[in-house]
Write a structure and sequence with these properties.
The structure holds 2 protein chains of 2 kinds.
Chain A: E1 5-14, E2 21-31, E3 36-40, H1 47-54, E4 62-67, H2 72-77, E5 81-84, H3 96-100, H4 102-106, H5 111-124, H6 140-152, E6 158-162, H7 170-187, E7 190-195, H8 198-204, E8 207-212, E9 217-223, H9 238-256
Parallel strand pairs in A: 3-7, 3-8, 5-6, 6-7
Antiparallel strand pairs in A: 1-2, 1-4, 8-9
Chain B: H1 2-27, H2 38-83, H3 85-99, H4 107-114, H5 120-142, H6 147-155, H7 160-196, H8 204-213, H9 217-245
Helix pairs in contact in B: 2-3, 2-5, 2-7, 2-9, 3-5, 4-5, 5-7, 7-8, 7-9, 8-9
The chains are: A alpha/beta, B mainly alpha.
């Protein structure tokens, strides 16, 4: 079986000479179809850079990234990715439905079909009834749900999420996490998820990748063996706390390292 | 009700201002060549209405033609400058410099280029006048797309043309309309000033200089009144189109 994502000795250097910053150093990673993998680490550890290398928004300085057995560039042209950023990045001049259907419109799918798919996606994120609203009429959490619906509208095999819930309040955030898990189960999408939150990473993921900064390296890979599907009880599970401690210790080990 | 309340203060100040004007002229017996009374201007307007209307319409047509030509040119140039870095780096400093010069001083020169009686001169002066603000604003607008929006389009493997149509152009609309508001005022000013220096007969600019020269200031003021009405009308029209074109924008949505 081909890995959905595989990074082989990938490095990324920004700038050159004395100003050069090693954002990623010798990254090896394999993500299997249907996995939910979180990247966690302090600022500057290269987790967002890694996401962008995989998504072909930047090219690595060295090493071989592969996505569905192809180059990230080919995977992007084949529309293998749905991307979700920290800010919803909805287009102001489009209604919610038109925003969700934007990728389909770009792919040349005709209006009746893309409206139908768009409405189904809005149902998936429980925003049916808001189709003809404009983005500014929605709360931050609702906007982010629209952006998730948009990323899923063309059924990409991979969802790349860069701190998608970072700007939301705690209550909204927990609701969104539940929704994302439900969507992940329903769509069988492979998710790569960048976060700052230890609890979020453990709660959502099947695997947590811990990274350290300067240079960005993978320092730990922690399998999350919590039972599926996850729910309210998960957060009270003994194993949940053990895993959180495990991730926290991996992160603390980085701080103790001599810089 | 809401309209009355929101326009009320403006109407009161306008009517009050006119009343004070009338009163001051009568009370201090101010001569007509310095400042005619509003009632005198109105009766001159009524008496001269057919002539004024013909002149006003001709001037308005010149201004609008020049605006259309110049704005179209500005949009095309703006699109080229936003697309090609070389054009942008070469042309933008010059465009910004040109935009800071009083281009209207070209008015007398235009007669030499296009002949004293040709209506083309006015159109060209207006077109040159509005070209730069439209171009500069459009470049800003087209380049205002955020990095993340561009990344999003890239993740859909959108072509450059698609990014232009779906992201850059809609995003540039607010910039375009603020440029058009400046440009519409410039167009009318440009057309009238150009006509001060000659050109075809029966134009507002010609009419104003002629009447002022004859010390018939009531008529001159009547022409100024008509020019103001055209200016306000043009601005209102652009405002209307703006509301229709981008109901989603902060400045428009209710």
């Amino acid at each position: 079986m081909t890995s959905t994502i595989s990074l082989d000795n990938v490095s990324m250097v920004f700038g050159s000479g004395i100003d050069a910053v090693k954002a990623l150093e010798s990254i090896d990673l394999d993500v299997q179809p249907g996995e939910f993998v979180s990247l966690i680490g302090p600022s500057g550890c290269g987790k967002s850079t890694m996401l962008r290398v995989i998504g072909d928004l930047i090219s690595p300085s060295a090493g071989t990234p592969q996505v569905n057995g192809k180059s990230p560039h080919q995977a992007r042209l084949d529309r293998d990715y749905g991307m979700v950023f920290q800010s919803a990045t909805l287009l102001d001049w489009r209604t919610v439905l038109e925003n969700v259907a934007l990728p389909l419109e770009i792919m040349g799918i005709d209006r009746p079909e893309r409206d139908a798919v768009g409405r189904k996606m809005l149902e998936l994120v429980q925003l049916d009834g808001f189709a003809s609203h404009y983005p500014w009429q929605l709360s931050g959490g609702m906007q982010q749900r629209v952006s998730i619906a948009r990323a899923l509208s063309f059924q990409p095999s991979i969802l790349l999420m860069d701190e998608p819930f970072g700007a939301l309040d705690e209550m909204t955030r927990e609701r969104m996490q539940m929704e994302l898990l439900r969507i992940w189960e329903e769509t069988e999408t492979t998710v790569l998820f960048v976060t700052h939150s230890i609890a979020e990473a453990v709660f959502l993921s099947t695997r947590v990748i811990v990274m350290s900064p300067r240079p960005g390296r993978i320092v730990d890979r922690i399998d999350v063996d919590l039972p599926q599907p996850r729910g309210f009880d998960t957060r009270e599970h003994q194993r949940f706390f053990e895993l959180i401690t495990r991730v926290r210790e991996a992160l603390r080990a980085i701080e103790d390292e001599p810089a | 009700m809401k309209n009355v309340r929101s326009y009320g203060p403006a109407i009161v100040i306008f009517v009050g201002g006119l009343a004070i004007w009338e009163l001051v002229v009568r009370l201090f017996n101010i001569q007509g060549f310095i400042l005619p009374a509003p009632t005198a201007i109105l009766s001159a307007f009524a008496a001269e209405a057919p002539t004024l209307w013909r002149a006003g319409l001709a001037t308005f047509v010149s201004a609008v033609s020049g605006l259309a030509v110049g704005a179209t040119g500005g949009v095309l140039a703006g699109m080229a400058a936003s697309r090609f870095t070389l054009i942008r780096e070469g042309a933008m400093p010059l465009a910004i410099a040109a935009n800071s010069t009083p281009i209207i001083v070209l008015a007398p020169v235009a007669n030499a280029w296009f002949g004293l009686t040709s209506p083309i001169g006015t159109v060209v002066v207006v077109a040159v006048l509005v070209f730069f603000p439209v171009m500069i604003n459009l470049v800003r607008g087209l380049l205002s797309a955020e990095a993340q929006e561009l990344e999003l389009m890239a993740s859909y493997a959108a072509t450059r043309g698609t990014v232009l149509r779906k992201l850059r152009l809609p995003g540039a609309l607010p910039y375009f309309f603020s440029a058009m508001k400046i440009a519409s005022a410039l167009a009318l000013i440009g057309a009238i000033i150009k006509e001060y220096f000659g050109g075809p007969q029966e134009r507002l600019g010609q009419y104003i200089t002629l009447k002022a020269g004859l010390f018939q200031f009531e008529e001159a003021w009547a022409a100024i009144l008509l020019a103001s009405a055209f200016g306000i009308g043009m601005y209102g029209l652009i405002l209307f189109v703006e509301r229709k074109a981008m109901p989603w924008h902060v400045s428009v949505r209710s």
